[in-house]
Amino acid sequence: MAVGIFDSGLGGLTVLEAAQKRLPEVEFLYYADSAHAPYGVRTPEDIFQLTRAAVHDLWNRGCDLVILACNTASAAALRRMQEEGVPPGKRVLGVFVPLIEALTERQWGDNSPPREVEVKNVALFATPATVASRAFQRELAFRAIGVDVEAQACGGVVDAIEEGDLILAEALVRSHVDALKRKMPSPQAAILGCTHYPLMAEAFQDALGPEVTVYSQGDLVAASLADYLQRHPNMLGAGKGGYLTTGKPATVGSRATQFLRRKIEFQAA
């Protein structure tokens, strides 16, 4: 029985690894749409159609529950997919919810009016599409007031990670952090709003400084998923675990192995 985890490329592996550590008894089927990565520079319609096709493929493979381990897909496609209707017995969830729960220190089911929270100045690092969607700010506004969010579109970072060029990725991270600090010199917290970015978490922290709390999504999403499956054990599905990609399996597997430092073999989706 497998839970589906979808990403445009390799970034969702940060969520997958955390989920595997938290839930060792659960099988996961990872789906990387590497042939169309990165999503962050695509139009909302493009992102929706690609995400929808991948999620339906995972559903058809027996994954009743699919996690969009991609902030761009969560921002541009999740709400529309849910509004157009999800097949009976199937679910698709995004990665914004656990992050905002942690930042605002209130549970998602808490529907009380927005209130002030401790963190006032937040830096958001995300893809151009996620920044343009303003989805993070919209969801945060339902739960908190008085929070200043300064978003920085981090062009090129996902491409460098997908190409395995970590030196270029680190240089781009430093450049984007410098650009953010010119707009918000003293952020209290920083959101790594793309699941690729935790692979560069040390670079972000070093550039931001030790006084900034950096929020990554892997552990937060894994904890939220564990809670969800405890409440909905029927959502484990009947599919088998593994790794799928729309790209070249050998190339994608080699890059995944480099990032996770363990052998990962992908199959063609």
TrEMBL record:
SUPFAM superfamilies: Aspartate/glutamate racemase
GO molecular function: glutamate racemase activity
Catalytic activity as recorded in UniProt: L-glutamate = D-glutamate
Active site: 70 (proton donor/acceptor), 194 (proton donor/acceptor)
Keywords: Cell shape, Cell wall biogenesis/degradation, Isomerase, Peptidoglycan synthesis
Keyword match Cell wall biogenesis/degradation: yes
Pathway: Cell wall biogenesis; peptidoglycan biosynthesis
Pfam families assigned: Asp_Glu_race
Source domain of life: Bacteria
Record InterPro entries: Asp/Glu/hydantoin_racemase, Asp/Glu_race, Asp/Glu_racemase_AS_1, Glu_race
Residues engaged in binding substrate: 7-8, 39-40, 71-72, 195-196
Enzyme Commission number(s) of this protein: 5.1.1.3
Cell wall biogenesis/degradation among keywords: yes
Family: Belongs to the aspartate/glutamate racemases family.
Function statement: Provides the (R)-glutamate required for cell wall biosynthesis.
Name the record gives this protein: Glutamate racemase
Species in which this protein is naturally found: Ruegeria aquimaris
Lineage of producing organism: Bacteria, Pseudomonadati, Pseudomonadota, Alphaproteobacteria, Rhodobacterales
